[in-house]
Amino acid sequence: MRVIYRLLAGVVAAVAVVAAVVAFSVTDLGKGAPTAAGPAPAGPPSTLPVQGTGAAPSSGAPSTSQAPLAGTSASAAAPASGSAADPGVSTAPGASASPGVAATAGTSASPGVTTEPAGAGSTPVATPQPGKSALADAEADPRVPALPANRRLANYPGHGAPAKGRVKDNRSGISFTRFVKQWKLTKSSPFATRRVLPAVKGVGHRGLLATCPVPIAVQDELKDTAFLAARWTLNYHPDGSKITWTASQRFKAGKREGWLLGYRVTYKAGGKKHVATAAVALVDVPAAKPAMVFITIPDAQKKRWADINTLISSIRPL
C-alpha cells in the first residue's frame, strides 16, 4: 500500500512540474504582444506624404499611398485643378500647353500663340481694302480734268521742221518722220527714242519728242489708257504743272487704231507763267502694250508747234 502512495505522489509531482513549465512559457510569450485595448508601441514615423494631400501620415501608421504607376488614368496622375503643371505655364483641364503659352480649355497651344476655345471661331483677320484703280486715281488728280467730248486736234500755224527719212522704234512697233536740224537726238532712257529742242534760258522747259511702249497700266479702253499716259507725262514738265485739254479723238496710224489727246500744260518758271503745247498719241500695235508718241513744246519755242501736226500724221506701225 505504501508503494502505491509513493507512485501516485511521483505522478502528481511530475504533472505539476509540466504545468509550471507550460504556464511560464505562455506568460513569457505574451509579454511582447499588445492587448486589444492597449496602445500601439511607438515607432519611427513615415517620411512619405500621402499623394495629393501634402500631410504626413499619423504616427505609427504605415503609408499605403504610392506614386502613380505607368498606364494609370490621367486624372490620377494630373495635378489638382488650379495647380501649376510647369513653371510659367497656365493650363486648364484637358488643355495641352507649352512653356510661355496661355491656353484655354480644349485647345492645343504653340509657343508664342494665344489660342481660343474650340468652337469659338478663328481670330478675325482684317479684309484688305481694295485701293483705287489707276484710272480712278487719275480722275481724282486735281492737275488733270476730265476728258472733253470728241475734239479734233488744231492745225497749228507755220510749217513743220525739215525732215529726212524715218525713225524706227522696234520696241514700240512704230515708225515716224525724222526731224533734222533743230531736233537733236539725245539719250533715250527711259524711252525707246528721244529728241529735244535747244534749251531756252529762263523757261525751265524745252521741246521733247519721245516714244516707247505705253509706260502705265493698260486700261480696257484705249482712250482711258491715253488719259493715264498724258497724266504720266507731267513727270517731264516743271513742278506744279496742270493740264487743259485741247483735243480728244480717234485717229488712224496706217491701218491700226489709235487715240490722240492734245493738251496745254501751264506752269511757272522764274516767277512767270508759261504754257507748253503737248500731245500724246497711242497706237494699238500687236505688241503687249500700245505704242506711245509724246511731244511737248513750250511757248518760248512756239514756232515748232506745227511739228505736232507733222509728227502725228506721220506715225505708222512697223
From TrEMBL:
Residue ranges of the region described as Disordered: 33-140, 150-169
Extent of Low complexity compositional bias: 51-115
Protein name in the entry: Fibronectin attachment protein
